């Protein structure tokens, strides 16, 4: 499905997305992308639909050809203190703040957002599969966080973070039961509750 380039015609738009909200450990990461008029979509789509190799190829193209981009992370301390929803929105605000060009309109993946800097915004459920700028943001955020979790895996290899990226897989659950939580785990999450595979598939 071809992604839409714009939500409005008159405003400079920034697409925002986050990754890692449903993980048991590690930071939540957000990215914001403003596309240039000549930006070519190519095979860019929702990051979940691309292989790791394709995401890395697209990542480089986005960075080199968009008008502006920024990536921000919010750590487990903030997640535990303010809850994952607020931490995710805060990460998106930080990404917007770090853009060297200020947008005039914000497109947000999902259905919740706090107003930022008096700039109008629109929340779009599954926006990363509908709008190009959000899809680009999802790719940058995903690649950044995956790379970060690979580095954390070297510190705690027992949990398989190089494969599960901190999500609640069987491997991760078994390691938690055997070794307990690390400093990178979110203490505000139910680390002693492990949903069934059916629940995970529908989450």
From TrEMBL:
<dbReference type="InterPro" id="IPR036397">
    <property type="entry name" value="RNaseH_sf"/>
</dbReference>
<protein>
    <recommendedName>
        <fullName>Ribonuclease HII</fullName>
        <ecNumber>3.1.26.4</ecNumber>
    </recommendedName>
</protein>
<dbReference type="InterPro" id="IPR012337">
    <property type="entry name" value="RNaseH-like_sf"/>
</dbReference>
<dbReference type="GO" id="GO:0032299">
    <property type="term" value="C:ribonuclease H2 complex"/>
</dbReference>
<dbReference type="GO" id="GO:0006298">
    <property type="term" value="P:mismatch repair"/>
</dbReference>
<keyword id="KW-0540">Nuclease</keyword>
<feature type="binding site">
    <location>
        <position position="109"/>
    </location>
    <ligand>
        <name>a divalent metal cation</name>
    </ligand>
</feature>
<comment type="function">
    <text>Endonuclease that specifically degrades the RNA of RNA-DNA hybrids.</text>
</comment>
<feature type="binding site">
    <location>
        <position position="18"/>
    </location>
    <ligand>
        <name>a divalent metal cation</name>
    </ligand>
</feature>
<dbReference type="InterPro" id="IPR022898">
    <property type="entry name" value="RNase_HII"/>
</dbReference>
<dbReference type="GO" id="GO:0003723">
    <property type="term" value="F:RNA binding"/>
</dbReference>
<dbReference type="GO" id="GO:0030145">
    <property type="term" value="F:manganese ion binding"/>
</dbReference>
<keyword id="KW-0464">Manganese</keyword>
<keyword id="KW-0378">Hydrolase</keyword>
<feature type="domain" description="RNase H type-2">
    <location>
        <begin position="11"/>
        <end position="201"/>
    </location>
</feature>
<feature type="binding site">
    <location>
        <position position="17"/>
    </location>
    <ligand>
        <name>a divalent metal cation</name>
    </ligand>
</feature>
<dbReference type="Pfam" id="PF01351">
    <property type="entry name" value="RNase_HII"/>
</dbReference>
<dbReference type="InterPro" id="IPR024567">
    <property type="entry name" value="RNase_HII/HIII_dom"/>
</dbReference>
<keyword id="KW-0255">Endonuclease</keyword>
<keyword id="KW-0479">Metal-binding</keyword>
<dbReference type="GO" id="GO:0004523">
    <property type="term" value="F:RNA-DNA hybrid ribonuclease activity"/>
</dbReference>
<keyword id="KW-0963">Cytoplasm</keyword>
<dbReference type="GO" id="GO:0043137">
    <property type="term" value="P:DNA replication, removal of RNA primer"/>
</dbReference>
<dbReference type="InterPro" id="IPR001352">
    <property type="entry name" value="RNase_HII/HIII"/>
</dbReference>
<comment type="similarity">
    <text>Belongs to the RNase HII family.</text>
</comment>
<dbReference type="GO" id="GO:0005737">
    <property type="term" value="C:cytoplasm"/>
</dbReference>
């Amino acid at each position: 499905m071809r992604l839409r380039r714009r939500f409005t015609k008159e405003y400079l738009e920034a697409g925002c997305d986050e990754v890692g909200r449903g993980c048991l450990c590690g930071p939540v990461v957000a990215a914001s992308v403003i596309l240039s008029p000549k930006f070519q979509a190519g095979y860019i789509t929702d990051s979940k639909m691309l292989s790791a190799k394709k995401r890395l190829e697209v990542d480089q193209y986005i960075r080199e050809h968009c008008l502006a981009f920024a990536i921000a992370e919010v750590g487990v301390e903030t997640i535990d203190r303010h809850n994952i929803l607020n931490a995710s929105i805060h990460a998106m605000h930080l990404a917007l703040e770090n853009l060297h060009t200020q947008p005039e309109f914000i497109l947000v993946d999902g259905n919740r957002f706090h107003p930022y800097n008096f700039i109008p915004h629109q929340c779009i459920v599954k926006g990363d599969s509908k709008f190009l700028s959000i899809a680009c943001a999802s790719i940058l955020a995903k690649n950044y966080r995956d790379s970060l979790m690979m580095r954390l895996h070297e510190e705690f290899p027992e949990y398989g973070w190089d494969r599960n990226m901190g999500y609640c897989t069987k491997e991760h659950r078994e390691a938690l039961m055997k070794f307990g939580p690390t400093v990178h785990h979110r203490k505000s999450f139910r680390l002693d509750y492990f949903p069934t595979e059916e629940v995970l598939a529908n989450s």
